[in-house]
Each structure stands twice: as C-alpha cells, then as structure tokens.
Amino acid sequence: MNTEQHLAEIEQQGFTIIPDVIELDLVERLNSALLEIETQQSITPGDNVFEGHHTIRIYNLLAQHEIFQQIPTHHVLLPIVEGVLDEGCLVSSLSSISIDPGEIAQPIHVDDTLYNFPRPHQPLVCNAMWALTDFTEENGATRIIPGSHQRPSKPDYSNEYETISAAMTKGSLLIWNGSLWHGGGANKSLERRVGIAMNYCAGYLRQQENQQLGIPLETAATFSPRLLQLTGFGTYKGLVGHINKQSPVQVLFDRNDGFVNVWDKIG
Questions:
Q1: What is the C-alpha separation between 85 and 124, in angstroms, rounded?
Q2: How far apart are CA 246 and CA 203, in angstroms?
Q3: In this structure, which long-range contacts are made by residues 67-71, counting pairs with CB atoms below 8 Å and at least 24 apart in sequence?
Q4: Quick check: 120 and 170 in contact, CB under 8 A?
Q5: What is the distance between the alpha carbons of residues 159 and 9, in angstroms, rounded to a whole number?
Q6: pTM for the complete prediction?
Q7: Could you tell me which CATH number the domain at 3-214 has?
C-alpha cells in the first residue's frame, strides 16, 4: 500500500497498519537504548490505572538519546502523518510503553480528549505505535474500535467495550487518528511487549510534552532542520510561534531557516 491508500484507511476506519517497515537493526538499537535508560534511571511502573501498574514508560525520549531522533522524521511515517494533519504538525510526545506480564487492559480512551472540540471533528492528533517486539492479543497489543473516530462522543473511562486487537510483527507501525477509541491490551503472556508511542498534533495546538523546555538547547542544536520544526522550534504558517518576527531557530541558533513573517509575504 502507498501513502494515499494508508490515508484512505485512516479516514475510513481510523487506523492503518504498515507491516515490517522499520529496519530491524534500528529496532534492536532502540530496544537496547530503552533498556539502558530504564536501568540507569531505575524507572519503575506508574501508580495509576491509565499508565499501568506493570508498565514501564519512559518520557521525553528526544532528550534521552540521539537514537530517538530517527523516529519523528521516519520516511514512511511522516508523510502519512502530514497527510492526516498537515506539514505544520508538531511532535506532541515521544515515549516508550513496555507492558510487562500481569498488566491488565488499559481503559479505552481517545488521544485528543483534552482538546474541547465538538465531535466528530477534523483530525487534531495523529499517533503511531512502533512495534519493537511482536504485538499479539496475548501480550497486550493495542485494542481498537474501528470507525470510532467518527463517533459524536468520547468513551466512558469506566466502561468496557468490544474491541479488536491490532496485532503486528516486530518492526511494524500502527498509525491512527487521535479520535479513535483504543487502549493498551492486557499482557497474559510471559514476555514484555515493547512499543514506542510517537504522538503528533496539529501545529496550532499545545504539545503534550513541552519540547522547547524539555529538550536541552545543546541537544536541539544537533537536530535536523525538519526535526527542529517538528519539535516546535519553527513557526506555524509563517506566524504562530514567532519571536519578534523571527523563528525560534533564528533566535536561538542563529541559523537561516528561511522563515519570512506571513505579513511580509503578503506585502
């Protein structure tokens, strides 16, 4: 399937799966980096139902290791996200979700729940799950309700719903509209299920993780021009996010990123 076909699936059913698209060498390096961070920082599971009592989550990955810079700009993923949102989209958050044996199913939810727009609405959020291990119904693959992104309401946090399991092999991508009803599955296996949640939002919305404060400037200075834009060091449509008619890149890094204020373009 090409980009347009994946976009059509997302529009129709709210999600698409791209099998075996992530290079396995990259998958292994990502797994190694996550395990190293977890061990060095002694990261433990959260203490609430949403994050899970047997789930390891590592947040703000772009500030953790340079290997994670390859995720937001992935050559297959990003064009699809831009098709759902637009080229001004932003990295909302980048975190890992490692579901250990014994974890119960996460409550069904939507990822744009805090944006108070009447539903259904145009896409505000587009997210991707990177499968760093096989995702199976037994080990906690993401549970989804196809077509639910078009519903006029959000799920009730305390209810149970009939879902399907988004099973996929290691190295695959699940991409979905942020209005899709979904949740992590229960891990009834004996092995950990590891994924990376690559979350994007429209360029005019506030990001979940504060990228500009959470990422040290010396780290951001190593980012590619596109990654700098995605993390909010650019502007949206030539205006939103400017600093005295300059882009953050121009002010912070003294680089010419081609920014021209929208009013100067009009003349």
A1: 7
A2: 17
A3: 67/26, 67/29, 67/30, 67/33, 68/30, 68/33, 68/94, 68/196, 69/222, 69/223, 69/224, 69/227, 70/26, 71/30, 71/130, 71/196, 71/198
A4: no
A5: 27
A6: 0.96
A7: 2.60.120.620
Please, which residues bridge with residue 182 across strands?
A: 109, 144
The type of residue at 257 is D
Q: Which pair of tokens denotes residue 209?
A: 């993780």
- Which residue in this structure is represented by tokens 């505000």? 124
Please give the pLDDT value at position 264.
Answer: 87
Residue 192: name the closest of 102, 82, 108 by CA.
102
Residue indicated by tokens 């539903």:
119
What 8-state DSSP symbol labels residue 77?
H
Task: Tell me the domain boundaries of the chain.
Answer: 3-214
Give pLDDT, residue 225.
95
Q: Is 136:87 a contact under the CB 8 Å cutoff?
A: no
